[in-house]
Amino acid sequence: MKRFLMILTLIGFTATTVQSQDRVRERDLVGTTWKMVFDLDEEADGAFERVILNAVDGLLDEIDIYFEFHDDNEMTVWAGAFGDEEEEEDGEWYINGRGQLFLDDTDHVDADDNVWMRDGDRLIPFERKRGRLVRKDEVYLKRVRK
Hints:
CATH architecture: Beta Barrel
Number of helices: 3
Shape: globular
CATH topology: Lipocalin
Distance between the termini: 48 Å
Order of helices and strands: HHEHEEEEEEEE
Largest sheet: 9 strands, antiparallel
Number of domains: 1
Helix content: 25-40%
Number of strands: 9
Structural class: alpha+beta
CATH class: Mainly Beta
């Protein structure tokens, strides 16, 4: 019986540790810069869709969007495309009690009430569908500067 309880405790500790790796913490963000990356390769179902998405992916490679997170839940967003001068704007962010990051909409970024969770050195958006969070891998934020 003791062995069984010890195994259950170990499983519970491991599950908690795995879940906590997905939490976003303020110290993960403040003073860091993140780049928005578009990855549409996984979205194509057929040959025609792959051709279209490759063309769109080439255009998205010319778009640069960076987020710099500051104290007091403020952020700076830089957006530039096709070699034009980058535009800068301010926004806000917050982390709820579950360690989920929320970004406010800005002129260049429509957050769509997405929840962002950490996956290593990436922030992955999750969309609410039918009361559940669904991972969206076609776009993510990758830390470029700490």
